[in-house]
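User: Hey, quick favor. My workstation is busy. Could you predict this chain's structure for me?
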Amino acid sequence: MGNMIAYGALLIWPLVALMLYMTLPVGRATIWTILGGYLLLPVLTAFDFPGVPPFNKYSVPTLCALLLAPIMARRGEFRWPSSPVVNLLMAIYILMPFVTGLNNTVPINVGTVSIPGMGLKECMRAAFENLLDIGPFILGAGLLGNERGHRDLLMAFVVAALVYSIPILAEIRLSPFLQRTVYGVMQSGYFQQQMRYGGFRSIVFLGHGLLVSTFCAMAFIAAIGLWRMRIRVLGFSAGLMALYLAIILVLNKSVGAIILAALLAPLVYLVRPRRQFGVVLVLAFVIVLYPALRGADVIPVSQVTRLIEKVSAERAHSWSFRLKNEDMLLNRAREKPLFGWGIYGRNRVLIQTEWGETRDVSPTDGTWIILVGMYGWVGYVACFGLLTYPFWRGFRLRSKAIPIASATLMMMHLLNLLDLIPNSSLRPITWVIAGALANMAAVGVRRAVAPNRTETTPAMQPALQG
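Assistant: No problem, here it is.
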């Protein structure tokens, strides 16, 4: 729980959102309402009322945007996704808790701990929470599906990262202190997790150094794309900004984010957009199929562990710990494979010790294992189907003129989704990007362009088809 400042920030954010929508175009206001809330509002602080999802740093900005965007948008500016595939996946994801609830009405009793079953009230609350999850996807598809929207997203990430770099550097030097000092939020054990290589990783207001590094990596990719388009950022070369953000990323000491950024940055700068989509589609299939491959023991986890050991024994130990937890949670998920165990932590592994204590021995990290455990393979496919639909959309448009802004945003999204395999970094801004890319536009007839020019025309309009 946070202090009065933390709760005050949540209460004030609707006013901040209103000012954004009154002063900015509706698309940009949507971006800054959701991205700003993600970066600035406190973690572990919420107004929690019975029967509805908690109002926290994720749901409050989303609700503000969902309420204000349709009102402030000009006539015809907001377009509901027309793809039958997208609409079907959204319906399944929203309604999934009702199906899951039918199979999870009985409480789970382990020792002195009793986890309640799911009734109609719990199902309605979970369905509303899933609706809030994909609300940013709907907004991104409806307002940000054209090249201008994609450029606005790239620019917002870079500008936000430049501003955010100041507290990031302060915490790298002094240790994570801002969320405790400003919002009074204390996270047990998280301070030790940010100690790396004789220094610290920054948390700022995101709750974990991994999330900060993922954000910085995505902003770095965005800066590379703007550099290729020869767009200046705050009067400076985007290439210079990319170099600066790369330094921030390295200083924050998250190896996974650094590796992903290093692998994807050359593709963004050197490869034509239409050639990028073949690569991203293959990686998208890997992302979607990873849980099944992991469950079938096809992924060579032992070889990966030995490779990590050559780099760092500490990282290898962390990797092995994650794999052990995944195995336990996968075994738990296999008991209800289609629709999962539902909410309240019913998907977790509880044991009773010899001295009578009931303990949760299954920390959850990857987003995929959380989804499979809660809503089964059907819920997983619905969620990751929406998140990876943009890659299929881009692949279908590869023979046309794809804007560099769209291709760059696709690479940012790919980085984020790859990070979802080991980490739980699915956030509202991820859904905004997925929606904007799902509604990606392209020129009908491809034309020759210079390597560093945007492959687009002013006449582009959003079009979403299944």
